[in-house]
Design brief:
By secondary structure, the chain is an alpha/beta fold. It contains 7 helices and 17 strands.
Length: 337
Amino acid sequence: MTKIRTCLFGLGHMGRNHLRVLQEDARFELVAVIDPVTSALPLAAQPVPLYKQLPDDLSFDLAVVAAPTELHYTLVTSLLNRGHNVFVEKPAASTKGQAAELVALAHKNNLHLAVGNIERCNPVVLALRKVVESGILGRLVHLNGLRAGGFPRNVKAGNNVILDLGVHELDLFRMLLGPIEIVHGVGHSTQESGIYDAAEISVRSKKGVTGTVHVNWLTPQRMRSIRVTGSQGLCLVDYIAQTCELFGHDLQAKSTAFSGFEWKRDAQGLESLSVPVIAKESLKEQLDQLHLYLNGAQHTLAVFDELIESVALVEQAERQVSGAHVLPFHDPHSERG
């Protein structure tokens, strides 16, 4: 088996996770790590060359970019121009225009380009897609996504909770519903002036399905979930616990892929089913999907038009929030004395 020679850019939080899974996967050969500020690899990592900047003579097939968001466009452009396939952490770029330029450049150079919208690779999302596609919920009515907790260690100007967290839910809504539009948004800046750390975003699909995304960095406990309401049932998904539950009346009798499972029924006749999910670390599943993509096989990654759209939806949401009422930033120190 020919290994995919890989170079990792960035050793922040996500970069260290990529370092770990790349070194654990025999299909990839990590040939170097590039980080301008890190002086040493983590102690648990296997030895590999660490450079402050990319050497001109370094040979590799794939670049995994886990650098800060504001560097994505410039770095990915340079890598594509040098003839490297690129996997870039979300978001692929800061604007829809930049994302479109990257996709056009990848097309021009006949290269692979994908973005790390990691929840696409969460095993529980595969279960959710099977539920939706089975029709057991009836006509879809509303989706509600919650992604809360996990304030970034460093919040830089230009970043916000929509770009950091909302991109996942918006991408998944589009994956489940097809094209969607942002119809409303409201946000709050409670910790730092001008940086949204909580937001509510409303969307609508072309078929009239609606959705609401709530994201915040403030909740002490990390919560990641999605609720899908249909005309005949409800599906609840917890991304962290990797659980997928179905609720409704007379669902077991419907001719679907779930009719043969063991359902529960309460005293009021409400049926419920815990849909089987094969648990797996999403980052490792993402690497599996990346390997499929690089080898021309079917995959679940966001590439090309979907890559552009994932950035475009964030851009639209930010525009809606900026034009809506927001809770003004309040400095608690101003009341002292």
